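Dear colleagues,

As part of the handover before I leave the project, I'm documenting each prediction I ran so the next person doesn't have to rerun anything. This entry is a single chain, and its sequence is reproduced below.
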Amino acid sequence: MLEPIVQYHGKWPFYRFLGMQEPFSVLFSLFNFLAHRNGLYKVKDSIPRDYPLRKYYTAFSYVGMASWVFSMVFHTRDFDITEKLDYFAAGASVLYGLFYTPVRIFRLDQKRPPIKQTLLRLWTLTCVLLYTAHVSYLTLWRWDYTYNMAANVAAGVVQNILWSAFSIRTYQRLKKPWAAWPGLIVAWIVLAMSLELLDFAPFWGAIDAHSLWHLGTVGPTIWWYK
């Protein structure tokens, strides 16, 4: 009779491939990286340089690519430094999403009325301070997995609510199918994130809930750039 697979220090055992500890998480992280890279090319090719939001779109791509690079590194070899870089990069990606969301929805990039520029500066400073405090707490005070997860979920929930409300309002006003896309993409991401709650032993010693979560974010990323 086979004995049940158990976790060791909260981690499942995996079969290594070419030295990679979690090969499918590496592969699916690569897919996400490519989705952002191709999206960046699309942004640069289709959006004029003088369009005010272009720099926010390109920053979104670069932050996304960086986060998935560090994800690939961490899932290749789990060391203390690779874990921290993965978590900090993921946190930066989530917080940039939170920063960018009101900039796009409320068009804080516009120079008129002048209050928008003031709000943009205040919002930028707030997000920088939040990220600095987040990294400082995890680095200087305590490496807390529960807090890290809660912080990322909170930031994600806020931006998801904003995008859903924006999508509903825009669809009601324009009655165009594409107006519903942000809300549908958010719903897809929420479903993908729910895979993290399953936390089952890896199939064939290779594919676990975490790797499937990474796979589940590829589609909405591609869709987002459309």
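The two ends are 51 Å apart (CA to CA). The mean pLDDT is 87.

All the best with the project,
I.
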